[in-house]
Amino acid sequence: MTKNLILCGFMGCGKTTVGENLRKKSGMNLIDTDTYIEKTQGMTISEIFEKYGEDYFRDLEHEVCKELSQKRGIIISTGGGALTFQRNVDVLKSTGTVVLIDVPLEVLKERLKNDTTRPLLQQPNKDEAMKALYEKRMPLYKSAADIVIDGNNSPLQVALNILNSAKN
Ligand code: S3P
Questions:
Q1: At residue 167, does pLDDT exceed 90?
Q2: Atom of ligand 1 nearest to the CA of 117
Q3: Ligand 1 pocket, 34 CB below 6 A?
Q4: Rounded distance, CA 38 to CA 140, Å?
Q5: Per-residue model confidence as pLDDT tens digits over 87-138
Q6: Which of 13, 44, 120 to mutate to test the pocket of ligand 1 (most atoms within 8 A of CB)?
Q7: What is the mean pLDDT of the chain?
Q8: Per-residue exposure over 21-56, b if at least 16 CB sit within 10 Å of its own CB, e if not
Q9: What is the pLDDT of residue 168?
């Protein structure tokens, strides 16, 4: 496959684990934008947010999207905010198929209830914060996506469904 597969969706939808299953099943290389940023910066995402703020992180994220848009035949697992910015959609969408991994809010809340690694969710009222962000973002993901896959399944099943749909 010469096109890229670009995974998007809300925090906790499974982009990283589905990406890993996709990599195994397809033999394509996988690059996770957050992991890439953490490696190149030598800091965790939380540390980057804490030290330099969200705007700085978004600029790093955009640079990675631009860099990865030069590659073909890879799986790109994006951070949950990446494809809510038009500048990232602009550079990535033309390189392949954008896949939204769609998981209901209630399932995401359950999956993320003990999470401490997402700075945007470290709020006194986490459920409210998630709801507001989810409602704001879902229309953006949907407009960026070429295909929408039900993510409320095992990561392996989601990966197989993506491969099936992306072929068509
Ligand atoms: C973010 C999602 C995170 C990470 C950062 C910001 C977001 O990635 O990029 O904490 O804005 O939704 P995951 O979607 O992999 O959690």
A1: no
A2: 10
A3: yes
A4: 25
A5: 999 999 999 999 999 999 999 999 999 999 999 999 999 999 999 999 999 9
A6: 120
A7: 96
A8: bbbeebebebbbbbebbbeeeeeebeebbeeeeeee
A9: 60
Ligand 1 centroid to Cα of residue 72, in Å, is: 23
pLDDT of residue 44: 97
Instruction: Take residue 83 and report the two structure tokens written for it.
Output: 């494809």
Which pTM was predicted?
A: 0.96
Yes or no: say if 149 and 161 are a contact pair by the CB < 8 Å rule: yes
Could you tell me which residues are beta bridge partners of residue 43? none
Residue 1: is its pLDDT beyond 60? no
Name the 3-class secondary structure at 4.
strand
Q: What are the φ/ψ torsions at residue 69 (nearest 5 degrees)?
A: -70, -10
**Residue located via tokens 């705007």:** 55
**Which pLDDT value is given to residue 50?**
97
Distances (CA, A) of 135 to 10, 16, 97, 114: 10, 22, 23, 21
Which of 8, 11, 114 for a ligand 1 pocket mutation test, highest count of atoms within 8 Å of Cβ? 11
Atom of ligand 1 nearest to the CA of 16: 15
